[in-house]
Design goal:
The complex is a heterodimer of chains A (111) and B (114).
Chain A (H helix, E strand, L loop, with lengths): L4 E3 L2 E4 L5 E6 L6 E7 L6 E7 L2 E5 L6 E5 L5 E5 L8 E8 L6 E2 L3 E5 L1
Parallel strand pairs in A: 2-11
Antiparallel strand pairs in A: 1-3, 3-8, 4-5, 4-9, 5-6, 7-8, 9-10, 9-11
Chain B lengths: L2 E3 L4 E5 L4 E3 L2 E3 L5 E7 L5 E7 L5 E3 L5 E5 L4 E6 L8 E8 L8 E2 L3 E6 L1
Classes of the chains: A mainly beta (111), B mainly beta (114).
């Protein structure tokens, strides 16, 4: 079975631009969560979606938004990029009551 | 608000030696506690978790952890470290036993000497 997949693997943006990151959950999983991991730090929770509804939100500015599609895949959108948004963005999927599995992440560099 | 502290940023041990990684948490109720491992270029992998019952929990790859409520700790241990254990280890507290909405510690980087 395929694990959680994320695209792209890497991308480079400049300050002020907008970026969209994508995540495909494990087949059968209806929950997707997003985390930001700045270099040298632990991951920070951004959003969780379940059945296309936002289930939880971390302490991130409104520049960060997400959505979940009918096939349970998800997109994370970040507007007006700042240098501090440079990080590894991790996606995790679960069946909500069972262990969640993390994808390999998307490395975002903001110049 | 819940928080997790991993006091040791880096730890170096010799292969075959025992290992203990420290984790302290702050949480109002009974915590749902997790340990994850992250190898270079890899996603996070769950090693073990605790939410009730026996305070000594066994995980994958020969790891175990002990929950001590009186000390607000959940330390990770392994009796004999292998070179392949070199990685970053994260302790986390979650909103439920499935590990949703995790709050992670800053991580401990483990290096293994031959």
């Amino acid at each position: 079975d395929a694990g959680v997949t994320q695209s792209p693997t890497h991308l480079i943006k400049t300050r002020g631009q907008q970026v969209t990151l994508r995540c495909s959950p494990i087949s059968g999983h209806k929950s997707v969560s997003w985390y930001q991991q700045v270099l040298g730090q632990g991951p920070q929770f951004i959003f969780q979606y379940y059945e296309k509804e936002e289930r939880g939100r971390g302490n991130f500015p409104d520049r960060f938004s997400a959505r979940q599609f009918p096939n349970y895949s998800s997109e994370l959108n970040v507007n007006a990029l700042l240098l501090g948004d440079s990080a590894l963005y991790l996606c995790a999927s679960s069946s909500l009551s069972v262990e969640q599995f993390f994808g390999p992440g998307t490395r975002l560099t903001v110049l | 608000a819940q928080s997790v502290t991993q006091p040791d940023i880096h730890i170096t041990v010799s292969e075959g030696a025992s290992l203990e990684l420290r984790c302290n948490y702050s949480y109002g109720a009974t915590p749902y506690l997790f340990w994850y491992v992250q190898s270079p270029g890899q996603g996070l992998q769950l090693l073990l978790k605790y939410f009730s019952g026996d305070t000594l929990v066994q995980g994958i790859k020969g790891f175990e952890a002990e929950f001590k409520r009186s000390q607000s700790s959940f330390n990770l241990r392994k009796p004999s470290v292998h070179w392949s254990d070199a990685a970053e280890y994260f302790c986390a507290v979650g909103a439920d036993n499935a590990g949703n909405m995790l709050t992670f510690g800053g991580g401990t980087r483990l290096m293994v000497k031959p």
